[in-house]
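Handout, section 4.2: multi-component inputs.
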Amino acid sequence: SFELTQPPSVSVSPGQTARITCSADALPKQFAYWYQQKPGQAPVLVIYKDTERPSGIPERFSGSSSGTTVTLTISGVQAEDEADYYCQSADSSGTYVFGGGTKLTVL
Amino acid sequence: EVQLLESGGGLVQPGGSLRLSCAASGFTFRSYAMSWVRQAPGKGLEWVSAISGSGNRRYYADSVKGRFTISRDNSKNTLYLEMNSLRAEDTAVYYCAKERISGDYVPDGMDVWGQGTTVTVSS
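Output:
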């Protein structure tokens, strides 16, 4: 299996841009997915296949990929975006892996 | 409306067993692979197991392989997780989740999640 590494925390002021990275180890990277989880709630898919946004997710959420690192960008952060964010990927055997999660704090 | 509703959680002693259920509605259940994902108290998400739409292919995390069994009854639109030889480290909220795309199981993200059921393993 492989590991996905995220920063434990990111802090931004309202209206600024938040960037959360997710790095895979030496194994080839498959597509990445991003989930938002607010306290006491189930996760919500916000980005799939590195860069695609599901219907109903605000345009301020975007994803990008470079090498074995993917990035979730939230432009014009709002207070309601404060949450834990998890990246996810899968290996060729069909096993999913989650990153450790990043707590986004809106100052 | 697409919905997933988990049940079956509770308090169980170490070494005990428990069966979780996930009732699905609002979509063609048999067409989608499904997964179980858990979250220990104050910790991150951990994928546990997945099953193809037909039920003929099953996948497990190393941490549960040999102890947990995933299954489904497409006639009842229900997903199951049979958990045996439970350990304290299995204590978590267990979520069921629907794969984003229909067809054979190809991991491509989970677009619908239940609200979770809590499993506590303690003496």
